[in-house]
Amino acid sequence: MAKKVKVSVYGMNISENGVERVNLNNIYQERSLIQIFDEYIQNNLNRYDNDHNKENLFAFSQCETEQILDDQGRIQATVLSGVVKTGEYGISSELIDINTGDVYNKSIDQADIMPFGFCIIVPAGYVDTCIVVMQNLGQYSIKLSLQKKIQSIIRVVNNDLFVSLGPVMPRQYIQKYLREGILQKISMIRYEIPRDETERLGVNYGVEKTYEERIIHKPIGFLERKANVITEWMNGQRAATDIVQIDGYDYDNLKFVFKLGNIEKTINLDNVEKIVITEDISDRVAIIDGLPTFDTLKPVMIEIGRGYLQGIGMAHL
């Protein structure tokens, strides 16, 4: 079974000296954010940056730009869509062919490279906020590495510019899912598993990528019975981890998975002011060799990005 393909949506702004936001359609010398990005990516396609501290490789492998027009042919927004290839090295491992059982050795100097789609949507006119949509695959995402690369590109243009990439979801949108959505799953994640439990499980203790997840499927009646507690969380009066309590299980992160129509969204309740909602788009894209094709991924990302722009008040899109 292929890993689920999801996208996360962020709002991005750029400020000078971390104070005054700049017009994204005129960042520097009449050049827009999309123009600056497109020029850089086209000149650096398939050139891998090696972050020796993070032991990570990063490259842009594809880039396209297009415009969103209204019924009269006027430009409503400019879109840059592309593919990032990235992966980590520094750990040796064994690769096993599940069909033949043959074992291959991966050295510390070899990186597992995976492609991830993304798109940036900048509305027309004087705007200081745009939408960035990033594809995830299973537990893998490009949020930190792409943000770092965006910052480095902008700093080349003007060293005083600072990129801010964060959640974009309005509270009203969250309340819509609490009110109208069907809660499919409750997920509780613990990132540090106690030593005695790892010993019983037979896994190494203290491994950074090892985490424990408990899932409650079809929690019928939960939202009604916990309505007051969830309201307190929305108002910042209690932590998300107080919403669901299980004896002997202290967890770090709580997620709700909702279904509304044909759309499935995962809401990470870690911080009400920093909520990032992830949408499962597995059934909306073509999958080849376990990976979504860019041709089917791009229009879905753009459609979702436009919906989020409407959610923050740019309804003309």
Tags for this model:
two-stranded antiparallel sheet; 17 strands; 7 helices; alpha+beta; 13-stranded antiparallel beta sheet; globular; 317 residues
Short account of what is shown:
By secondary structure, this protein is α+β, with helices and mostly antiparallel strands. It has seven helices and 17 strands.
Note the total helix count: 7
What distance separates the N and C termini?
A: 36 Å
Number of strands: 17
Sequence of secondary-structure elements: EEHEEEEEEEHEHEHEHHEEEEEH
- What structural class do the secondary elements suggest? alpha+beta
Poorly predicted residue ranges: none
Bulk shape: globular
- Biggest sheet overview: 13 strands, antiparallel
Mean pLDDT: 87
Strand content: 35-45%
- Relative helix content: 10-25%
What is the radius of gyration computed over CA atoms, rounded to a whole number of angstroms? 21 Å
Write the layout of secondary structure elements.
Blueprint: E1 5-16, E2 20-21, H1 33-43, E3 49-51, E4 56-69, E5 75-88, E6 93-96, E7 103-106, E8 114-123, E9 130-137, H2 143-157, E10 161-167, H3 171-180, E11 182-190, H4 195-201, E12 212-217, H5 222-225, H6 227-234, E13 253-260, E14 263-268, E15 277-280, E16 287-288, E17 291-292, H7 294-311
Antiparallel strand pairs: 1-2, 1-9, 1-10, 1-15, 3-4, 4-5, 5-8, 6-7, 8-9, 11-12, 11-13, 13-14, 14-15, 16-17
